Amino acid sequence: MSGTAPDAVEAALTSLGLDYENPRPGAFLVKLPGQHKLATMTWLVTGEHSLGVEAFFCRQPDENHEAFYRFLLDKPAALGPTVTSNDVAFELDWYLDWKVTKQLTVSVVAAWASPGEAVAQAYGRTQDFWYSMLYGAYNY
Q1: Structural domain includes residue 64
Q2: What's the number of domains the chain is made of?
Q3: Quick check: 43 and 27 in contact, CB under 8 A?
Q4: Is the same domain home to 79 and 131?
Q5: Residues 10-31: tens digit of each pLDDT
Q6: Where in the sequence is the domain holding 119, given as residue range(s)?
């Protein structure tokens, strides 16, 4: 077989009839069809001697939506095919743990974030913002 890895991937995707975008050289965002009109978006990224495959599917997280979506922001590809920057945000966090009783601990996190280039590319948000989280832990 001759040609480059990106050429081979593109030929395979075309022969399989899959919808895909090629936002940058060697990177393919593929739409894998599912049931009931659902689809899984999958990244195929070719390297010199490798093929990276990244796929993630979650209809809706059951709990802790904000932390879940913040985790996804650590992966620029999750923000969309037009995002090329890994600079998500600069963030300062303050933590406080308070041992209320022998078994109960309360933790508070306050944070300030300044959106980076990736967030600006995906959402156009450039304003700094504050947020906080409250956790409780019970030991028995």
Answers
A1: no
A2: 2
A3: yes
A4: yes
A5: 999 999 999 999 988 888 989 8
A6: 71-138
Dihedral angle, C-alpha 134, 138, 139, 140, nearest 10 °: -170
Q: What is the pLDDT of residues 64-81, one digit of tens each?
A: 767 766 666 556 666 666
Residue 63 lies in a domain: no
Residue identified by tokens 């995707």 is: 13
Flag whether 66 is in a domain: no
With a pLDDT cut of 70, the percent of the chain lying above it is: 80
Angstrom distance (rounded) from CA 88 to CA 90: 7
- CA quadruple 80, 82, 85, 91: dihedral positive or negative? negative
pTM for this entry: 0.43
Sort 55 into a burial class: Cβ within 10 Å, 0-12 / 13-18 / 19+: exposed
The closest alpha carbon to 16, from 5, 8, 24, belongs to: 8
Q: Say if 60 falls within a structural domain.
A: no
